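Thread amino acids onto this structure.
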């Protein structure tokens, strides 16, 4: 009997695969990954060599690369299947890691079985596996041909009909596995704001999501709240089935389970509420609806990151009002710096400045004729993080792979990691309060 291995960060996907292949499957939780891939591989029981390994979903490039190399070294001839949405970036993963197949995490049971059967047949034809082995515990395909006794024919036909009817009546995908805050703790809602467009707001928000997901997988959601021209999905190379307008109408505002089915997963271990497909759809969403969505998400996730519209319109104000933290950006131009000063003054005057504020100076460079000190004098508050201008960020954005996901050691990545560190346990407002630290006014 062929053996399968699944290394994943999703308990829901693990449970589903266990139902499909039964005792043939050895599952290893991705929670072991922070301790090193060797620890993960040691969880695979000794004995008969596994023939097929599924990697994912929600594994980073670095983890997947190390696991694929370790599996090939430990189990020569093993077939590697990447569980990930297929897009251009994944072609690089497949080429670099020697992956044999890519399987969407949302693929239905029949597609999973088809892949298993085809890989099993290939292993048999290659002489790597005996023909008597069976890759699955059951075959859920309605048209599958199974040998049965004459007395069992009627029961088999009834079971097939029931499975077909169940598949036809299922209209929504299963909700994705998420991780909420611990009991008694409040979620951190982080609004990323800037007075003008083009300040790198989306770049900061997406990298913040990647960085926090490394610290707390499946506990981060990124909301594209730029209602007219949000491009988070483009920057992350996602092709969402649902967008923000879907989440504020019908059943979603009243049922968290429905809401979770509309989320778009990212390979780095976080989830995305993608922006509207057209400005008209975005305009149909009110600030009140956005605020309610953020409240819902804060009950589901530990971190809620909101990429807001430029300026202080209805939606940006609604996001800031719900936030525990504000990341406020400006670039090294006189117009942007003055705009940030006005924005901070307005938020303070209307009394909705979040308890914690993080001032980020983006695109820092000496050639601008301005210094960090000049910015601080004009804005009237200290700059917390300075992100240098970087060609690596522009390249990562064009590739659809955030710079913190690619693992580069560029100075801009270092600055972004410093920003991420401000939102860990030791950077939270709750921690500062418990330890006698003053929140930034």
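Threaded sequence (441 positions):
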């Amino acid at each position: 009997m062929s053996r399968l291995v699944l290394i994943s960060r999703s308990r829901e996907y693990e449970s589903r695969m266990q139902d499909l292949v039964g005792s043939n499957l050895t599952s290893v939780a991705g929670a072991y990954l922070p301790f090193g891939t060797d620890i993960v591989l040691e969880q695979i029981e000794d004995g008969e060599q596994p023939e097929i390994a599924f990697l994912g979903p929600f594994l980073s490039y670095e983890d997947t690369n190390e696991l694929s190399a370790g599996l090939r070294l430990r189990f020569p001839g093993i077939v590697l299947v990447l569980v990930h949405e297929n897009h251009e970036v994944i072609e690089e993963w497949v080429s670099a890691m020697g992956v044999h197949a890519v399987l969407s995490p949302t693929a239905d049971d029949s597609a999973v079985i088809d892949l298993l059967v085809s890989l099993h047949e290939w292993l048999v034809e290659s002489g790597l596996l005996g023909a008597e082995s069976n890759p699955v515990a059951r075959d859920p395909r309605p048209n599958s041909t199974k040998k049965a006794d004459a007395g069992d024919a009627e029961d088999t036909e009834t079971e097939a009909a029931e499975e077909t009817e169940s598949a036809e009546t299922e209209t929504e995908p299963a909700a994705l596995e998420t991780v909420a805050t611990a009991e008694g703790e409040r979620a951190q809602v982080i609004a990323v704001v800037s007075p003008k467009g083009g300040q790198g707001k989306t770049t900061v928000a997406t990298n913040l999501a990647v960085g926090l997901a490394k610290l707390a997988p499946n506990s981060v959601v990124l909301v594209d709240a730029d209602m007219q021209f949000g491009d988070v999905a483009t920057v992350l190379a996602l092709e969402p089935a649902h967008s923000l307008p879907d989440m504020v109408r019908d059943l979603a505002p009243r049922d968290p389970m429905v809401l979770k089915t509309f989320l778009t997963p990212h390979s780095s271990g976080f989830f995305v509420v993608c922006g509207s497909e057209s400005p008209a759809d975005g305009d149909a969403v009110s600030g009140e609806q956005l605020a309610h969505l953020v409240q819902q998400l804060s009950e589901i996730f530990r971190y809620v990151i909101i990429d807001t519209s430029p300026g202080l319109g209805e939606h940006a104000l609604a996001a800031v009002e719900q936030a525990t933290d504000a990341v406020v950006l400006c670039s090294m131009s006189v117009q942007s710096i003055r705009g940030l000063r006005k924005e901070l003054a307005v938020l303070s005057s209307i009394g909705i400045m979040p308890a914690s504020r993080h001032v980020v100076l983006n695109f820092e460079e000496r050639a601008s004729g301005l210094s960090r000190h000049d910015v601080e004098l004009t804005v009237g508050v200290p700059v917390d993080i300075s992100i240098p201008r970087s060609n690596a960020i522009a390249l990562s954005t064009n590739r659809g792979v955030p710079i913190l996901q690619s693992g580069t050691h560029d100075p801009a990545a270092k600055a972004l990691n410093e920003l991420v560190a401000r939102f860990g346990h030791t950077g939270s407002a709750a921690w500062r309060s418990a330890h006698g630290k003053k929140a930034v006014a």
